[in-house]
Amino acid sequence: MQKTRIKLNFTIPLWLAVIFAFFLLFDDFASPINIVSQQTGNARQKDIQVPPPPLTEGIFPCSECHAEMETNPEPRELVDFHDDIEFTHDEKNRWCLDCHDADNRDMLHSAGGEPIDFKESYKLCGQCHGPKLRDWRAGIHGRRTGNWNGQKQYLLCAHCHDPHSPKYKSMKPEPPPKKPGNTK
């Protein structure tokens, strides 16, 4: 009976140590991600760097053109400007102002109407694509560079996906690599 008691007394602290070590090692996955722009450089140890979003030159800030325009919320074919945008992102149910803010054209907005900076566009994408956002934060989806246990840099969704037409175009697969001639 005494052997069992000694084993039990040893087992509980061991399990507590294992759980504590787990939280120390995997704290990055549990803690919220603080996104810091590379332009400001104000990053703490756990912050993840995000380069500026890939905005088309001459288009941003949007308010330069839209400040004097009256907002037309009606879905329609764009003919005067932005007519080069191929919109295939749930085009039957979505319209520009579902993501772009009508009052502040230099911002996006959430489904609840909260403003979202273009540098944090992953918050907008994550509203519909929750599992992809989770995988992006964990470094499984998208491209992440940096230190294993330090600062990291993520790319925004828009660095790889066109937000207006995010699906990748079909590609023809390449043949497998050739086997080296002498592999003995």
Give the tally of structural domains.
1
Task: Estimate percent helicity.
Answer: 25-40%
Radius of gyration: 24 Å
What oligomeric state do the depicted chains represent? single chain
Note the beta-strand portion.
5-15%
Number of helices: 6
Shape: extended
Strand elements, count: 6
Structural class: alpha/beta
Q: Mean pLDDT across all residues, rounded?
A: 77
Contiguous uncertain segments of 5+ residues: 22-32, 42-46
Secondary-structure element series: HHEEHEEHHEEH
Q: Gap between N and C termini, in Å?
A: 61 Å
Strand order of the largest sheet: 1-2-6-5
- Major sheet: size, sense and barrel closure? 4 strands, mixed
